[in-house]
Model the fold of this input.
Amino acid sequence: MPRILVVDDSSTVRKLIINILKKEDYETVEAVDGVDALEKLAQNDIDLIIADLNMPRMNGLELIRTIRQDPLYTDIPIVMLTTEGSDEDKKRGFEAGANVYLVKPAPPSLILYKIGSLLGAKDQ
Ligand SMILES: [Mg+2]
Done:
């Protein structure tokens, strides 16, 4: 099964997302902020990333920009999942390189649908 990196500084949110993903048998790896996410990305074979925006050390935008600058990771699908729902924040997310922008709390069905689409598109 595809392996998904879940990046959020809230352990409650990470658990919530991972529970949703496990129901569909996705494998998961957790990271607590952007710095941790880059380490986990280097250590694991990751197929998709779900990233929060507001995090200590390195936030979601910095993380996505850093990932997109690395030729190894330019094609990895990234879902930004955040409480920040303004048009300006969405624009910044897409400019950084997010493929999908979801606002918390996003319905599990929507999260799974978006992930399925991104992973499906990648296989074609
Ligand atoms: Mg946060």
